[in-house]
Write the structure tokens for this entry.
Amino acid sequence: MKEIYKQYLFGAHMLVNETGPDPHAFETAFSLANLFGIRLKSGAELAEAEMIRFAGEQLGVDVPDPFYRTFPAGVRALSPDQLLFDQLVHYTMTYGFGDFSRPGHSLWETDFERLAFKENAEIRDFSVVTEAEAAQRIDEAVKGFCAATRPLDAQKFALVSQYIADKGKEGLSFASQDLQIRLLMATRDMDFAKDLHLNDILKLTERMWFEVYGKDNPKKLNLKNKDRKFLARLIKDRLAASSDFIDCYERQARWAGLLHHIHFKAETEKEQIFCQAMRSGKNHSVWSGYEKQLAAGDANAAAAYLGKEKGSGAVIRQMNTLLSRGADAEALLPYLKRCGSVLLIQLLMKYAAGPDDGARSFTFLRFGLLRSHQETEEEKSRRRTRIPEQIRSHLAACIRNELERRYKGRLGKVYIDEAMKKIALPVSESSSQGGFGVLPKGSRIPLPEGKKIRAFTYWEKVDDVDLSVIGLDAEDRQIEFSWRTMAGEQSDAITYSGDETSGYQGGSEFFDIEMEAFRARYPSVKYMIFCDNVFTYGMRFADCVCRAGYMMRDKEDSGEIFEPKTVSSSYTVNCLSSFAYLFGFDLERNEFVWLNSAVHSREQVAGETDLALLKPLFAAADTLNVYDLFRMLAAEITEKPEEAEIVVSDQDVKLQAGAEQIHSWDTDRLLQLMESR
């Protein structure tokens, strides 16, 4: 079985047996437990030696040494001047002389005797499945991903692409327009275009310009001839299938530019009419008609027109505008009943967030990357979409009622672990990275007492990746902990492993955080946010090999810097950006918060970024969570897992025959249930 399939299953706590019974299964099971804390809950008799290598790769075994090989003890023993001198010498060799041929290390640190590993590490339950069982699980997962209406993250899209390359697309139903566009761009198979509208070709062109050419301004297209021919063929195909191109008026100038750039030749009457329309300068789009009705002061008519021409989802997305222009809230409620459940959940999170009297932060996704805009004072003064708190609360209550109605009793007898109140729903996962221990954005994990957290990143095929931490106080003021600030900040509260800048053949960086000591030293900090950025100019994470994650370590650890047995999460950072947010800490609630967001940014220094787009994630699980979802879905809730038909828990619990267990990391299953109508 291919590695990409096994990697996905490893994230779902499964190992795959590819050879049948192994006479050394017991020894393998023992080694997995001893090395990685993996307990084989089922299928232990199918354990095989190859699993040791594979698990080691996923959790990290051959991780390059950091700059200070006796981290953290060696770092804390050095003075700020020694730490600074180390880095200056190192930078002179690398960025000064351009010598990235060998790893740089401290000139001052002394040898450190490592102890035998005696740390308390969390046990993780895995199952061993046969190759046939694994293939069935992959079949189910891919069918679920293709049937989902939400965009897929990079790992899931790669999984679907590989599956189609191996087995073809027969039997798959593609519900997401985004997925069809990405598959069409990747394969040039015109079958993926049959459900696309003509205007979707612009989306494909802009994605191609960004992903393939690395450019972000579609007004300056300079495509290769083969891509021009492909787009021309695609336009002809879609025009032959339909005469409806009213949506294209919305981006008329962009269409005129594209037709000119690809030297499109109109050969049929339809093609001639289309080209003339796009070059005419006359706007007949639905949005133009909608704006005219708004300008005339009839917001209810504008909503009805938009709903008829664009569907209920378009009305929902314009809810703030319509309400602020005088639309009747009650008249808009029927549209809630006709739109998708995930869109409803997103709207609920928006209205449940409270008043929007302050400066707004607008976030949106483009090509799998988070982008944001912070409202200026001038924009705030001109804002016309203020919604009274009474209406916001009323809409939030109506949305909750609608979700309760459509989900009610869809499942049978359900047991729900209380811990699921901390797990957010996967409503915006397309900018996430995939791997072991990854949870939906906004999910929270209580931080254990008596432990320290060691954040890590390591990489190959790039000179420099920087791991940084940003502290935020109640007023959103930032305190930066990074390569440029840590020489004078090293302490038992926060320790940095040094800036590794000679890592083309492999480098690593680490932060140690002791929560009690950190709170005492930095009492104003409310949140801590960890981020990764590629410092090598012009490189993106997709152009190199990079992994990130965290370990839960004893305060007095073994001295081994990277212990796979203590890894809580390890995932691949492979986004089309040079910047990614990893995770955060809520210091007031003593909780770990999943952020895992690829960000559209060219910043090379963490402290220069806008953190406003992360605020909703810190509240995501408080508004609606996995516990709430299954409370609505359950026909009956039981307090005994052995009596349940569906068990929602990460714990090792006893199941009755035929019962299904759903975990916090089963995002494909969660999405399937969320999208049910």
Remarks:
- The chain has a mean pLDDT of 90.
- The longest helix spans residues 389-407.
- Residues 416 and 648 are 5 Å apart (CA to CA).
- The first strand starts at residue 14 and ends at 17.
